[in-house]
Design a protein that fits this description.
The protein has helices spanning 2-34, 41-44, 128-131, 134-146, 162-172, 187-193, 232-252, 265-268, 274-297, 315-333, 345-348, 355-364, 385-399; strands spanning 55-57, 61-63, 69-70, 78-80, 83-85, 94-96, 102-103, 119-126, 149-156, 180-185, 207-215, 254-260, 301-306, 342-344. The protein has 404 residues and is an alpha/beta fold.
Length: 404
């Protein structure tokens, strides 16, 4: 009797264990089918503005990802040489619209929205120094001082030259019905187009469409073929372990976005190519002329703002900055663009800052956090957060005389 009872208990336990195993297998199967899959290499690659990425573009090489944003709350500070630069200047940040252009969140539809009564729109062109958010501070100050409804659209993108600015302007600029166009030039043309050898007027001697370069770390990439197909429970455990190893592999990998012809001037040992420099200066003047003609044909005010250059201890900065300043002198002297209003930031931007300038900016932007103890720029061209307010104040003082 006892043996029979023990046999029944053993059979019951075996059936219960088998049922639990089947349930576990079913749950593992469903998890594998709908939730957990082996991490593939392309799945692990970062994309979008959150990773600093660019979206490939047929005319401009690349652009910022629409619907992403920048310069808002939660943006981590930029730390360099013992300074922590806080660029989170706007509560809701700046949004990128369908053209990859920066606008305030209230202006996400500005390219499709009819201009309101008394509304004034300024389209800003440039590279990373214009991508910094001084255009929006400038529009804010102009709105307040003039009592006008002034909106900024920043068609500026890191690395853009006057060539991409022209492409941007003629392909999508008309969408905004702008009243004024402000171009901040020509530092990227000199740092890029003038350095690459074998100059081409369309800038394809240095520019390519955006692509990604992946360099694996010095340890083996995990192989998903080592994962068992069955049992599903074992497969689930192996998949989870595989994904953990793949994440470590991807985090150690080098993933670069390439928009330049290789080898680069640095790889070739070239600091500047004299023939390309001559061609680039002429191209910049021609591109400015195109911007002017575009604006005049539409009754739009066009303003050229020339680059502010800061002295640094870097030898390459000192070397190339001389060419940037020389190119500005040539642009100003060119009879081809006579009559264009030019705001010379290298002359107007105060260096070093004075107490009078600091007090004026604090009055113009009341309640804003400004750390004037930091350097005015963190390299030869990019402004510290406090300097962005100085830039906006300096530019607004000129632009307000031209807004009617």
């Amino acid at each position: 009797m006892k043996d029979r009872y023990e046999r029944k208990e053993l059979v019951f336990s075996a059936i219960l264990g088998l049922m639990l195993l089947c349930l576990l297998e079913a749950l593992s199967f469903l998890t594998l089918a709908f939730s957990v899959t082996p991490l593939k290499l392309n799945m692990g690659l970062p994309s979008g503005a959150a990773s600093g990425g660019q979206l490939a573009h047929p005319y401009k090489s690349y652009m910022y990802w629409p619907a992403e944003g920048y310069w808002g709350k939660g943006m981590p500070p930029y730390v360099l040489a013992g300074n922590s630069y806080d660029y989170a200047l706007f509560d809701q940040g700046i949004s990128f619209n369908e053209f990859g252009h920066g606008v305030l969140p209230i202006d996400r539809d500005i390219s499709r929205r009819k201009k309101g009564q008394g509304e004034y729109r300024i389209l800003f062109l440039g590279g990373s120094t214009t991508f910094q958010p001084w255009p929006f501070l400038t529009a804010e100050l102009l709105s307040r001082t003039l009592g006008r409804d002034i909106h900024a659209i920043s068609a500026a993108t890191g690395g853009y030259t006057s060539q991409e600015n022209v492409a941007d302007l003629v392909t999508s600029g008309s969408a905004y019905d702008a009243d004024m166009i402000v171009a901040y030039l020509p530092v990227n043309d000199i740092w890029h187009a003038a350095r690459w050898p074998k100059f081409k007027r369309d800038y394809t001697h240095f520019r390519t469409a955006v692509s990604r370069e992946f360099k694996a770390p010095n340890f083996k990439q995990p192989d998903s073929r080592e994962i068992f197909a069955w049992p599903f429970t074992v497969r689930l455990v192996q998949t989870l372990l595989f994904n953990k190893r793949m994440e470590a592999f991807l985090s150690a990998a080098s993933i670069n976005e390439i928009v330049f012809v290789k080898p680069t001037p640095d790889e070739l040992g070239i600091w500047i190519d004299k023939n390309s420099y001559e061609g680039t200066v002429d191209a910049v003047i021609d591109n400015i002329l195109t911007m002017k003609a575009y604006a005049e044909a539409r009754g739009i005010t066009f303003i050229l703002v020339t680059q502010k250059i800061f002295k640094t201890g870097a030898e390459a900065d000192s070397f190339i900055s001389k060419y940037v300043l020389d190119s500005i002198d040539r642009i100003k002297a060119s009879p081809r663009i006579m009559g264009i209003p030019i705001v010379e930031m290298n002359v107007l931007f105060p260096e070093p800052l004075t107490e009078a300038t600091i007090n004026q900016v604090k009055q113009e932007f009341p309640g804003r956090r400004m750390d004037f103890s930091q350097p005015e720029a963190y390299d030869s061209m990019h402004f510290s957060p406090a300097s962005l307010y100085i830039f906006a104040s300096t530019l607004a003082a000129d632009l307000k005389k031209r807004i009617h």
